[in-house]
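Subgroup meeting minutes
Present: P.N., E.W., G.H.
Scribe: E.W.

1. P.N. recapped why we're keeping a running log of single-chain structure predictions: easier to compare across weeks, and new members can see raw inputs and outputs side by side.
2. G.H. added today's entry (338 aa).
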Amino acid sequence: MIPRFPGEAPRDHSKPLEQIRLLADDRHDGQRLDQVLCAFLTWRSRNKVHELIRDGYVELQDGRAPRPSRKIRQGDVIVVRIPPQPVPDEVFPDDFEVPILFEDPHCVVVDKPAGLAVHPAGRRVHGTLIHFLHRRYRRPEDPAHDVVPRLLHRIDRETSGVLAVGLDDTFHAAVRRQFEDRQVEKVYLAVVHGRPSEAQGRIELSIGPDRKSPVRLKLEARRDGSGLPASTRYRTVRTAGAFSLVELFPETGRTHQLRVHMDAIGCPLVGDKVYGVPPEVFLDYLDDEEALAHRERLILSRHALHASRLTFRHPGYAEPFTVEAPLPADMAALVGEP
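Output recorded in log:
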C-alpha cells in the first residue's frame, strides 16, 4: 500500500487516485528518482515510471522538472500526478455488493468473497474490499458524516469469510489490541484431500521457508525445532468421497499456517497452488493467472479455506461477540450439506 504523507487525511478510495505525495526517508537517501518511484508505485514497471517523469507527471519541491537519474535525499517531497485512465475491469465491478453480516456505528463485519483482495497492493489497485467500504462510508465533503473504515485484520485474497472492520477510532484501537494480544478466536473451515488419520487433534510443527522449493514464498513444516513455533487444532466435520471438511482453530498466527499444517499431515487444501502440488503449478499460475494449465488437478480455482467464525469483545456488549459466515457454495459442493 502507498504510505500516507505525514499530516494528510486518510485517502478516499471511493474516488480515482489523482495525486500522490511521497516523503523520502533514510532508505531512499542517495537513490535515483526512478528507483524511489518504483519502490512506492509497485504496480508500475520501470518503463512506466520513466514515462511519468518524461511526460511531466512528477515534480519535486523545488518545482523543477526532474530527470530519472536525479538523486533523492532524505526529506525530499515527490508529487506524482496520476494520468487519467479508465478503471480496468476487475473480478468485482464497482457496484458489487459484499454481504454484510453485522453493522453498527462502531464496526462492520463482512463475508468476503473468495477472489476479492482486501486492500490495494502491487498491481491490484482497483476493485478491492477497501474500495467497496470507502464507497459505502466515506463522505469527505461532509466531515460530520465522513467515516474512514479501518481493517482490524486481513485474510488472503483466495480465502473467503468473516472479516471485521472498525468504523470509529476508539473501537478500532480497542479491538485491534485484542487481535494483537491474540485474544480473538478465529475458526476456519477447509476442504482437504483425503481424511486426517485422527478425527481431531493438534498439529504442533514449527514453520520456516521451504529450503528446497523454487517457489520463494513457500513455507514448510519442520520437525527439527527450527523455524517459528506454530500450533493448530483441527476437527474433522465430515468426509465425502475423496474430500473432508475440517474445522481449524489456529493457536498461533504464522503465514500460511493452516495450509502448511494440513499439507504436513497429508491432507492439503483442495485448490491450493503452493502446497501439496508440484512447484510448476504455482509458477504457471504466475505466468498466466487466467489460463492456469492445472485446473482439473486443482478442482477449485482458489484454495478451499473459509473464515467461518470470529469472536471478540465488542465494547457495546457484555458477552463475547461472535459473527459467523456460512460455508460458500463452491466448498459445500465438494463435501455436501450436513
